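> run fold Pentatricopeptide repeat-containing protein At2g06000-like
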Amino acid sequence: MLTASPGFHIDVITFTSLIDGYCRAGQVNEGLKLWQEMISRNISPNIYTFAVVINALARDNRLDDALEFLRRLRLTNIIPKPFIYNPVIDGLCKAGNVEKASKLVVEMEEKGCRPDKLTFTILIIGHCMKGRTIEAMRIYNKMLQVGCVPDSITVNSFISCLLKAGMAKEAFSIKRAAVEDPNLSMSLSKRAVPVRANADCMVAF
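> ok
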C-alpha cells in the first residue's frame, strides 16, 4: 500500500512511474499489483499507464493478458495510439498468429487509430514469415497509399524477405522505387539496399 508524505499527492503519474519501474525491472506482477491499488483508490489510468502495462505483458509473452488490457482500454474514453497496439501486434506475429494481429489492426482503424510505420513493418514481416508475400505486398502498397513513409528498416527487411521467397523482380522494383522516389524521404542509396539472394529474412514456403 502506497503512503504519501505530508504535502505529497499520489496521482496517476505517481502510479504510472512506479508501475513502469517495476515492469522495467522484470517484476511485472508487482506492477500489476500497483495497478489494482490504483484502481481501488478510484484513480483512473491514462494512456501511458495502459501503454506501460500492455508493453510489459507483450514483452513477457503474456499476450492474453495484454489483450485483456486492450479490452479494458476500449471501455474508457481514451483515444488509442499505435504505440499501445504495436507491442501486442508484434507479439502475435512472432507467435505466428498473423490473422489475429491483422484483426487487431482493423480494430485500431475502427477506433480512429491509424497504423504507423512500425505497425505496417510488423505486419509486412509477419506475413512474410508465414510465406504470405502477396499479402505483405498488399500491406506495403497500402502503407504508401495512406501516406505512411517507410524507412530503411521497412524497405530492407521487405526486400530481404522477397528475395528469400524467390521474388527478385518484386524486390528490385521496391528497391528502385525507394531509391528514386523523393517522396519516400529515405536515407537510401543504390548501394544501401543490395539485392542479393542470401538475404537474412526467414520465410515459410
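The CA atoms of residues 94 and 191 lie 30 Å apart.
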